[in-house]
């Protein structure tokens, strides 16, 4: 039985929405610095390396497009920005290098941010994992204090409240099963980076039909006040209706038409 046909209340998929769907992948790890990671990626996927600072680099024009490599901490970028303000080039480089090395030693992970790729292309991304491992990279299992993750940014071209309400409800109903299947490491669980949606949020979704997107976003923000959930909708909300975001820190979210899944 076709579920869409059987239930007229479910939103109809847009034409070619499946073929258009892409997934962005983010990978966190420790043990290989930004510059060496950029070189590794260029060797694997082609492209030209552009070192922005000790905390950030781009690998441009790879087979997937532009890939970003960065030390995954706002403080790292603040250090690099501060260093650039110095008129003394040697002092600037020392501040940038030393500050970011301290962060690296404090187990702040390096993050690779791939551009959105088709589902078929995901298999080509897999080659980066053994290559990183051979270069000395470590994941969450490498140390009890590591709490790194892989993030999937699943795109959609929908912009209507019923669609997002149903997707959120489906995720709420499946989240415990998903958490069990992904075998979350203890460090990742206690870190609080990918909490599950609370029961009250799911019950509220069940009890309401949202015809207005702003109403759904407001409902989400009342129950989900930060981004540290397994499914983070704030990039999507910023893309669809930036003016709807209430919390100042959430207004700084990079707008993307994606479900941000940790």
Account of the 3D structure:
With 262 residues, the chain is α+β, with helices and mostly antiparallel strands. It contains twelve helices and nine strands. Strands 1, 2, 3, 4, 5, 6, 7, 8 and 9 form a nine-stranded antiparallel beta sheet that branches. Strand 2 and strand 3 form a beta hairpin. Helix 4 (74-84) packs antiparallel against helix 5, helix 8 (161-181) packs antiparallel against helix 10 (199-206) and helix 8 packs parallel to helix 11 (213-223). Mean pLDDT is 79; it is low at 1-19, 75-80 and 102-106.
Count of distinct strands: 9
Distance between the termini: 32 Å
**Mean pLDDT score:** 79
Strand content: 15-25%
Shape summary: elongated
- What level of helicity do the residues show? 40-55%
Number of helical elements: 12
Biggest beta sheet summary? 9 strands, antiparallel
Helix/strand/pairing category: alpha+beta
Q: Notable features of this structure?
A:
nine-stranded antiparallel β-sheet; 262 residues; disordered N terminus; single chain
Compact overview of the structure:
The chain has 262 residues and is of the alpha+beta class.
Topology:
Blueprint: H1 3-6, H2 17-20, E1 22-29, H3 34-45, E2 48-53, E3 56-62, E4 65-71, H4 74-84, H5 89-105, E5 110-113, E6 117-118, H6 122-125, H7 128-134, E7 150-155, H8 161-181, H9 186-191, H10 199-206, H11 213-223, E8 231-232, H12 234-241, E9 258-261
Antiparallel strand pairs: 1-5, 1-6, 1-7, 2-3, 3-4, 4-5, 7-9, 8-9
Helix pairs in contact: 4-5, 8-10, 8-11
């Amino acid at each position: 039985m076709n579920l869409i046909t059987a239930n007229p209340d479910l939103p109809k998929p847009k034409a070619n929405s499946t073929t258009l769907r892409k997934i962005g992948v983010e990978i966190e790890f420790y043990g290989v610095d930004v510059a060496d990671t950029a070189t590794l990626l260029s060797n694997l996927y082609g492209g030209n390396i552009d070192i922005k600072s000790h905390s950030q680099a781009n690998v441009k024009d790879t087979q997937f497009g532009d890939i970003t490599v960065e030390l995954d901490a706002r403080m790292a970028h603040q250090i690099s920005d501060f260093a650039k303000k110095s008129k003394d080039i040697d002092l600037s480089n020392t501040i940038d290098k030393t500050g970011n090395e301290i962060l690296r030693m404090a187990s702040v992970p390096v993050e690779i941010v791939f551009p959105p790729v088709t589902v078929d292309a995901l298999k080509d991304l897999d080659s980066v994992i053994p290559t990183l491992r051979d270069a000395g990279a470590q994941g969450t299992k490498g140390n009890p204090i590591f709490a790194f993750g892989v993030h999937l940014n699943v795109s959609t071209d929908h912009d209507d409240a019923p669609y997002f309400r149903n997707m959120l409800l489906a995720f709420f109903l499946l989240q415990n099963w998903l958490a069990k299947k992904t075998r979350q490491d203890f460090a990742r669980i206690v870190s609080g980076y990918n909490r599950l949606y609370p029961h009250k949020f799911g019950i509220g979704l069940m009890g309401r039909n949202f015809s207005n997107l702003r109403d759904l976003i407001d409902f989400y923000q009342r129950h989900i006040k930060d981004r540290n959930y397994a499914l983070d909708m704030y990039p999507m909300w910023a893309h669809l209706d930036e003016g709807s975001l209430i919390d100042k820190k959430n207004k700084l979210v990079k707008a993307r038409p994606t479900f941000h899944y940790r």
